[in-house]
Structure formats: structure tokens, C-alpha cells
Amino acid sequence: MSSLSATVVAAIDDLELAARLVVEGLRVGGHRSPFRGHSTEFQQYRPYRVGDDLKHLDWKLFARSDRLYTRQFRESTNVSVMLVLDASASMAFPRDGVSKFRYACIIAASLAYLISTQGNAVGLMTMQAGKLLYQPARGGRLHLLALLAEIDRLSADGTWEPGRVIARGAELLQRRGVVVTISDFYDDEMGTRRELRRVAQRGHDVAMLQVVSPEELDFPYSGNVSFEDMESGARQTVDADAIAAEYRAQAAAFFERCRTAARRDNVEYALLSSGVPPARALRDFLVRRSARERPSPVPLAGRP
Amino acid sequence: MIWQNPWSWFGLLTLAIPVLVHAFGRQRAREQPFPTLAFIRASRLTPKRRRRLSDVPLLLVRVAVLALATMALAQPLVLADASERASASTVARAIVVDTSASMQRTAADGTRAIDVARLRAKQTADSSRTSTILETTAPSSVIAGAVAWLETQSSRRELVVLSDFQVGSFDAAAVASVPTDIGLRFAQFDAAAADTARLSQTRTGDRVVTARTTVSSVGTTVEWRTRAARDAGAIATTDALELLVGVADQAAAARARRAGGAPPSATAPGQGHTIAVVFPTYAQRSALAERARPIADLWMLRAIERIRMDSTLLAIASRISGIVGPHADVGTRAILLRDANGRPIVSAATDSIAGASRLLLFADVDVESLASAALASATWAAIADAPSLDESEPDRVPADSLQRWTRAPSATSPSPSARGPTDRSDGRWLWLVALLLLVAEFWLRRVTRGADANEMVA
Q1: Tens of pLDDT, residues B375-415
Q2: Do B43 and A97 touch (CB under 8 A)?
Q3: Which residue, A130, B85, B179, B402, has most beta carbons within 10 Å?
Q4: What is the per-residue burial (b if ≥16 Cβ within 10 Å, else e) of B353-388?
């Protein structure tokens, strides 16, 4: 199944349908949630496969049946995921085509759908028109629909205070959970980084999804262009050909800075180009996340 | 195709404007919202100049618009057959019909040239915007009146002369008196057979003398052929009188040689002799004067004697004063005639052409004066028992002269204010195309702007 392109998915008005399409396009996570809770409960045996942790082998069963079985545990407790979404004006770029904001909304909706259908709780924290907008992390289909409707109502304008929104979102998670921040991270670079680090240090599982448009990466402009900052309205008239190389270097340096800082701060990082089909972007992110060594959700072994 | 307003071509200079604009114009900065200016340095605040022509298709369209507008201002007029007919009907015409006696002669088939001419005049008048028909026995005399009438007309103007164009009825002077913006058209009618017009015969004693008059732009040559009446088939001799007036041409020289070709054996005038009267206006007069020798032949002396005895010539000469100029020096020439002041006005010498002697009479009188007429007449009388002038048929203005004088009515109107609604130009089509191109330019500009926007998205 090929991934639906960003344009196609973005063209679907019904955000739930878009999210379902994206999630159903994923090949991972069908049985194993990438968002695993802490408490575990034995669920079933499964034939041993090379690579399984030996501590999960049921030796007694091996003794009885001469076969190797791995014990699988079901996450009995839900994990709470807080989606932090950037709805600032800079996300509205580009004005025509798939904007970064629409792309971010689809990613957020898909994540919410995936998390919710796997029995976890999902919430939303964002800032609209200078006011915090909050949906508590809960499970259930009704909550999911309400959340998707909330995301659908959002529009990208004004500015946001990333530090405050992230901190508040993490605060409102009652227990340790997952904080997924979706933004272009242009605003308050240091503050954002500091807040993400602090949230991670408090034991949350923090992910940083940086959404960029291909135009921001490639800078396909030429001639004299008067660039207008979409948030501040400031203007800069330049010869685009002359500064293109410098721009690309600067932008690449910025993304690299974000990536290294995230790794250092134990924050999961992904750069999502809005030109890439959302399903593929999401799958890549989830595959990396599943493969990632995480210290906390170790299933309890040795239970009868 | 003619261009009625050629000065408009200077408008082509405006083509430089779009070229310069495209070559040196600064590109307008495009508005572009962008998420952040953090990576856009203000290092190049001043956009640099482009080094190559920008947007060549747009430039071409703009140049074409200006070129077409210039062409339209030059007021082109495409003269296809149909449009020419249409344009002919916009001309005001003054039609001069010659009603002289020669036009009224009845030809062999019973028609009269005057009737044909009148019919033609009516047809021409019908195809004109306005017209007037002037009937006259002397076309030259009404030209001034016709021109005066035409001057009052605001449209294109043409003077049409319908005549048999006998010499004297219409000449270069009359043509010159017509302003150049008035067109000229001539219709020549054959009033009588050409051959009889040129020749006249006289019987004198036992000889038949045939006079043949040839008018050219150089002068008038009268040739007499003398035959014995009893032996009608054999040409005895040819005499010739050449009145050398203007610029010599090849044909005249050839005629002179032919005229002098008869054997000079006879001693009496009228037996194969040539007399040339050289007027001051004749271009090769000085060359002839240098080449001339003193008179030696007897027939020449006799001819001179006869001319001297001409009472009319003598009477006129005693009342006038000749031209005083470089030609007045007679040198070794024999003086025939003196004017009232005693200055020589006619002197004689000889030269030979093609082996035959020719009597040269150098006249220091105006060609158009009475004295020259008298001189020609006296010479004529001296050379032979020639028929009198009034019996010979006048020659007609050569067709090539008429052709040369013919001209189309000037397309430009006499003045911008007099330009009537009939003034035509095919420029409106050019304006239409220019307008369409202007729309194309507008569209192209928008497309270009759109392409810039797309480039941003792509």
C-alpha cells in the first residue's frame, strides 16, 4: 500500500478520516503500541524468535514441552500522550498548497487516532490567539472525536510561547507520559530547548517533531524578493539568488542544531518535510521510536 | 502600399524605450511571506542590476506594439485594385476637353474625336467625387483656371486633359504651372492619321517636294525630298533644315547624319544640301563653332545671299538687339545680319557631316523671338521652293512626354484641417493588431507574475 501524498491527505476535509487513512497506511504498530505503559500483565505466549530477550523465555514451559516460548505482556495501564501543537502564523507557510500547519494537524490527528485506538490517553495543548487551549489526556472514542474537532478548529495565526505551552502541557499530564511537540521551532529557540530538556528530565518521554516545508529547505527563489516575516511582519528585500546559498547553510545549521540538542537532551527528534506523505513520515518516526532503547517501560519478568 | 505620413517613421526611435527598460530596469521586488527572517541576512539590500535582457517574450510584444503603432501613424494605404477604384472616387477632377478644329475632324469611320473625348470626360466626371469639365480650343490657356478650381477642393485632386495634343496645345510649361500635389492625366485622341500629319507635298515645276517635320526635345528638323515629277519612284535628293535649339541627343545626331548623306554634286540649293540654324541654347554650339570652317561652297554663298535678301528678316533685325553673350564672337564666320546696334546676330560657317558639307547659321537671337522665326522662314525659302508652313500638319506632342508628365494625385491632403471624412488609411488594422498585442502584453505580464508565484511553490 502506497502512502497517500501530503496533498491528497491534506485535501481531505474530515480530519478523522484523514487520520485513519494515515494510520491504516502504517505497517507498524498493528499489534504493538509504540507507546507502552509501565505496568504489564501477562497476555500470551509466542514462539521464541531470535533476538527476544532471554529473560522473557518461559523456562518451565521449555522444560515441559521442549519448546521455546516467549512470554508477552499486555500493557495493562495506559500511557498518556500530550500533543503540543504550534499554531503560530509561521506555520501557515506556504500560503498555497499544503501548509505546514495543515500537515502538522494531520500528523497530530493521526497520532491521536493511533494512540486512542490502541487504548491510550491522548490530550492536546496549544495556544490560539494568545490563550492556552487544552484538552486533557483521556482515552475513548468520544474524546478522540472531540480532540480531532478541536484540532480542526485551530488556525495558524499570531504567535505562541513555546516554553510556556510545553511546560503547561507537561504539567497537566498527571503522571509520567509522553509529550509530543509539533512545531517548526523557529520561535524562542533557546527557551524551547530549555523547556524540552526540563520536561525530559522530569521523566517524561519527549518527542520533537519539526515540520518544515520544502521551500524552507530548498529556498527556490530568484530575483529580488521582499520577504515578509509571517509573525512579526518585518520586511527584508534581498536578491534571492545572492543569498540562497547562505540561507541554505543557515537553515541546515539550524536543523542540525535542533537535532543535536534534542539528542543531547534525550529528546526524540524528527524532521518532517511537508512534501513527504504523512503516512511515511509517521511510520519512519514510529519505527525509529520502537527501535529506540528506552529505559523505563521494561516489562516485569518472572511473574507466574 | 504607400505611406501617407512618412515622418512618423521617426517614431521607431521609441522602440529603444522598452529595450532600455528591459536591459537596465530594476526588477520590482516580489512580495513573499516567509516563516522567519532568521536565516535571511540583510547583506544585499540593494538588488543588483540584471546583465541580460529580462523576459524576452514580453519585450518582443512591447516592441511589436510600438512598431505597429508607428506604422499605423504612418498611415499606410494598401492600393489593391478594388481599393484603388474606391480611392479614385474620392478624387476631385478638373477635366479639360480640347475642342480645337483638329479634334472636330471626322475620321474615316465617321466618328469625331471630340465626341469620344466628351463621352470620356463624362465618364471620368461620374467616377469623381466632384468634377468640372472645361471645353476649350486651347487647353494651355485654361490650366490656370482649372488649377484655381482644384485648389478649392479639399480631397485629392487631379487634372485630366483630353486632346489630340498637337504641338502647342499643351507643353512642359503648362505642366510646370500645375502644383505638384495635383495629379495629371492625359488622354490622347487620334484626330487624323499620323502619316499625313507629318508629310506634305508640293509640286513645283517638274519636281515634287515632300516636307517631313520632326519635333524632338532638341529642335525641329524639316526634311525635304525632291523628286522629279515624271520619275515618281526615284528619290533625287534630300535637303534638310535643322533648327538646333536645345540639348542634342543621339537620335538628332543620327538624323543630322542621314540628312547630310546626299551627294553634294549639285550646285543649286534644293539639291541635297543641309543648313543648320544653331541657336544660343543649343548645347553643342561652342563645339560646332570651333569646328566650323569658312564658307567655300557656292551653294552656301547663294543661300546666304538669299537669306540676306529676305525683307522680313531684315526689317525685324533692324528693330531688335541681339543677345550679347559669349556666343557673340563671330570669329572667322561670315556675318549675315546685324541688329539695330550693328552687332552681328547671324553668322555663317560650314562643317561637314559624313563627308557632306553643311551650312551652319549661328543665330544670336532668342529661340522664341520673332527674329528666329523670320530667320527660319528665310532659310527655308532660301534652301528650296518649299511649301509654306501653314500647309504642313503640326506634329503632336510625343506620347512619351505625356507619359512623363502623367502623375497620380498626391495622397496627402493639402492640409490637416482640410482632411475630410473621405481621407482613408489602412492604419486602423494596425491599430487593431496593436491593441490585441497590448492585451497579450497584459496577459503575458500576469502569466509571468503567476509563474514567479508557481516557482515559489514548486
Answers
A1: 887 877 776 554 444 444 566 777 788 888 888 777 654 44
A2: no
A3: B402
A4: beebbbbbbbbbbebebebbbbbbbbbbbbbbebbe
